[in-house]
Amino acid sequence: MTLQSLDIKRRSATTTPSPQARQTPEIAKLIDVSACTGCKACQSACMEWNDLRPEIGHNAGRLDNPADLSDAAWTVVRFTETERNGRLEWLIRKSGCMHCSDPGCLKSCPSPGAIVQYKNGIVDFQQENCIGCGYCVTGCPFNVPRVSPRDDKAYKCTLCSDRVAVNLAPACAKACPTGAIRFGAKEDMKAHAETRVAELKERGYSQAGLYDPPGVGGTHVMYVLHHADQPESYGGLPANPSISPLVELWKGVAKPLATLALAGVALGSLFHYVTKGPNEVSKEIEDEIEREDREAVK
Amino acid sequence: MTNHWVDIGNADVVLVMGGNAAEAHPVGFKWVIEAKQRNKAKLIVVDPRFTRSASVADIYAPIRTGTDIAFLGGVINYLLDKDKIQHEYVKAYTDFSFLVDDGYDFENGLFSGYDAEKRGYDKKTWNYVKGEDGYVKTDPTLQNPRCVYRLMKRHYSRYTPEMVEKICGTPREAFLKVCETMASTATPDRAMTILYALGWTQHSQGSQIIRAGAMVQLLLGNIGIAGGGVNALRGHSNIQGLTDLGLMSNLLPGYMTLPGDKETDYAAYIARRAPRPMRPNQLSYWQNYEKFHVSLMKAWFGDAATKANDWAFDYLPKLDTLHDVLRVFEDMYQGKMTGYFCQGFNPLASFPNKAKLGAALAKLKYLVVIDPLSTETSEFWKNFGEFNDVDPAKIQTTVFRLPSTCFAEEDGSLVNSGRWLQWHWKGAEPPGEARGDAAIMAGIFLRLRDKYRKEGGAFPDPILNLTWPYRDPHDPAPDEVAREYNGKALADLADPKDGKIFRKAGEQLDSFAQLRADGSTSCGCWIFSGAWTQAGNQMARRDNSDPWGHGQTLNWAWAWPVNRRILYNRASADPAGRPFNPEKKQIWWNGSAWTGTDVPDFAAGSDPADGMGPFIMNPEGVARFFAREMMAEGPFPEHYEPFETPIGVNPMNTNPRALNNPAARVFRGDMEVFGTARDFPYAATTYRLTEHFHYWTKHVRINAILQPEQFVEIGEDLASEKGIATGDRVKVRSNRGYIKAVAVVTKRIKALTVNGQKVHHVGIPIHWGFTGVARQGFLSNTLTPFVGDANTQTPEFKSFLVNIEKLQERS
Amino acid sequence: MIRDPKDLSRYTASQRANHWVIGICFILLSASGLSFFHPAFFPLTQLFGGPVWARILHPYIGVIIGAALVPMFFRFWKLNILTRTDIEWLMRVREMIDGNDHDMPEQGKYNGGQKLVFWGMSACILALLASGLVMWRGYFTFPVGIVRVAVVVHAAAAIAMLLTAFVHVYAAIWTKGTIRAMWYGTVTRAWAKQHHRAWYRQATGK
Fold this sequence. Notes:
The complex is a heterotrimer of chains A (298), B (811) and C (206). Chain A has nine helices and eleven strands. Chain A is an alpha+beta fold and 298 residues long. With 811 residues, chain B is of the alpha/beta class. In chain B, strand 10 (251-252) and strand 11 (256-257) form a beta hairpin. Chain C is mainly α and 206 residues long. Chain C has one domain (8-78, 102-204): Up-down Bundle (Fumarate Reductase Cytochrome B subunit). Helix content of chain C is 67%, strand content 2%. Chain C has nine helices and two strands, in the order βαααααααβαα. Chain C has helices at residues 13-37, 51-76, 84-91, 93-97, 112-135, 144-174, 179-183, 189-195, 197-204, and strands spanning 8-9, 186-187. Chain C has a two-stranded antiparallel ribbon. Chains in contact: A-B, A-C. The interface between A and C is large, with 45 and 49 residues.
């Protein structure tokens, strides 16, 4: 829904422009993985603020709990143990929706207004418009949306759009005890990330960097990584995410081309009919049959 | 904490050892991150497991559980050997030059004066040499072989890097890297902080581990300075307040002590606790003991405490022995107790050897549990299948449950690890029949007093004469109690210098400096004096301005003592009174007085030229490397193996009496149930997880979601030896029982090579039990041994032996 | 209904029913499917009681069309084997479209175009069914990579099917006297003689 403070920039399955007059700055959440201790306060805060209570599950031999994102778990901290040059590293990453500038979910969504992108960059699901087809899951390069088995609606992190709309930071950023999650104007977050990256490089992480993947036009959830050259080692963060070419084809050129083809055939048929006329049985043959019948009667 | 949470941000090196701050103190850990980001601080983590703290550390060194003294002894040896110490500091501010009694000795694992029968020491030789003037003799040249410096150097020369590697399993290079980084703070402009918690305290030699840490800090000149200190991270939000208020069997509020059963003479009782200075011009602040004591007795007994009756000295119980929880449960187990009150406490889960605890509770006539939750202790009599396999028909204990409020349902103050008393306000009304702890205690007290009044008793006076001045006697209000512990004038108080009245009778006092031994003041806890003054509730202050820019927010809440934020801060300045580190100065001599960014921990008018030492609570005036007779097992920390040792020998000696802590108390029957490495080959350690708070949050849905099911952690090596895959169910046994849990197989626990053999660790988080909404589990203390630290009796939860096997069942 | 006893029987009742089951399903699937394909068609979801109902019903109808294809296919596949004459017919289809059908090669029951429609539609339904099941999240969970292939296959097959269907329907409308074959099951002898002379001979013995 449009709020006074949140203009919609893009809307799923909508071919006409959204309101464009007002300019609002882009925001971003910056997650500094090097300052994250995996305390899961973000998960608690997310559950508290959004009134989510996933099942009390099982331990699957890992510290990650819930084990994966779900309709009721919009953010999950992922723990990965890696060894690099004989040195053990325990990489801990808060995962969830990345709020892409070019969101694959929104592109895939067939239901007008079920997915919106606000001017500030937040990509939000509007469950009242969601039809439960799961196309967003197909479109997402980060494997984030989850269709609820309870109501067949898709859910994911809203970046606390309700909080942001009234100038509050997302619940996770508010709760993060170490300052590993920061929230603000995207530009400011990028500037802050630069100082963090510089410090990490000084500490010997020569490949430290900011994860703001250009393949999806940049994201509004960004990471500072010590090993920006190997994002996969952080619980499978994709190295060069982009909307799959298949999805691009499906929800890109295929749409107008196919529509044109259908219209072309329909119109072509009509004009064929009016120009060439119907294909009727010829008078000759009708006469032949009549003749035959008469002969038969005789 | 000698320092405080925010001050961690001033450190240049942070040592996390004997704790896992990121896991157990995630909020306070922000200051470690702050130190890293602001000061480019290096974070060192020494732990058997690669912990959450280690995940953001610059240096990680593995260590076998229970060998911290060997490690720290190695650090002390390194610092002394490489001369990486802050010379000016140790010379002026420690007992380096003090001469020690000729009878003091250390031989093959034992100090002089050991009595094997008593499992304890005659400590008379553990002392200084005194001169004819009554003061301790010193050798400022440090040449005398009997000076503390020489003795210490000799003691720790045995802790070579090779020995450290042999005992701790810490690879030499990792150990040396840690030493080198720590040593970088020996300069006056650099600071190291030590953050520890139960990983140091919960050993049979826990107090000595902490001492060893303090010794390292003293050598480096890191005590009393910004970003330094030895900092205990407390596990409950108010556990600091618990010790401050003396809720131990041998303590009175403000770290005063109960008399022993031989101390029947009041004057002698005071004299023992108010030591004369051991060196000239020293303050020896405890000389004021009587003022604090009399004010306490006035707060408790009012007009009934008079000079004539030695301020009601006879009302105080005289202690026969330490009645710590282990002792109490031992007595209960032996059938010597009828009833037990258990307030905000879940001993069945929190103390070792659950089987023994359960059997002990079953011998009680009644058990009263005052708690907001249904705890394992209150349900100890109920059968929960394998988790609590008891026969209720055979347990005759009557259990009373008195539901109490939780912290958010009441006003009050909490004392954090940094000694800040922060007032908090009720957030919600208590549910159902729950009542505040004070109201419950008042109810019990008033009924008891009534009975004593009507029926008399052996010695009813302390009960009948207890002051009970509350507006509603049935519900003492938090502000009333706070005013009481702050203290007030009972008569008009005049300044002895000019005779001017500065406090009228009935007014609140400003600090313990105003306390008197003549009965004209009352104060419930002298160190808290200043928390609620005539100006109002200082704990409720919320001004976070930080005028010096290093986290000294003196107008935020209130810290004991006298709102001082960093203890021993006199040591942050050189003997002439100039800050060692002008960038982060604490206090300094301005020519006529001490002033600074903090409240000076010193006699405010003492000219540096007079040579008063910064450690004013010690009669020496300086810090002690040589602990004299104050510790149970020796003046210098020495490595002893845990009572359950995976290697069966103490590589530091060949003395069978000195394998484990020779002064630790072991009850009959408990020694027999210690396991050996033959049957239980793996070193086990218990710990907490960030997702849970002790045994409380398993009652909370969100926490249960975040960590739903009991697990243990084992390394990949051990897992492959045992054919265990991550997610399998396993059974972990000690000689006292077993638990079943999911195995989390991890790279973060590596097998260590110790004394030529491979030692595996099994990590056992503690948070599950049979009540609550998380999946039911076993109390981890089913496994742990019933032995405590020789000084504090804190149980040895961190080092014991187990075996592990794979189960076929699924959860 | 028998209009003229001499009319030629082209489809039995059950064949016609089979055809119309497929036909109706196809219309419903097209309406719902197109609405998910392009926002321009989204209002079509109202035919189903709203977009969520459209999403719920679409795959079930898909299963019905798949099931209906089976008898259809086995009834007609033999009649739709392409012959050399069909190829020749197809090569000269332009004349046909121009309306000059008088010297087109003689056709059996089905001409080359109709046969192509048969095979095309069968193939499309098969592809739609397979890819549709992969996309059906109510019952199946496939790796997202496979789902992405499936959605493209589904869309492409659906468009191919629609285009084929347009040709099929238009051909029926354009060629007068055809549609009744699917209503009454019969065609006139004249129609048969004109459009399917070989079949006419075979049916009448002339």
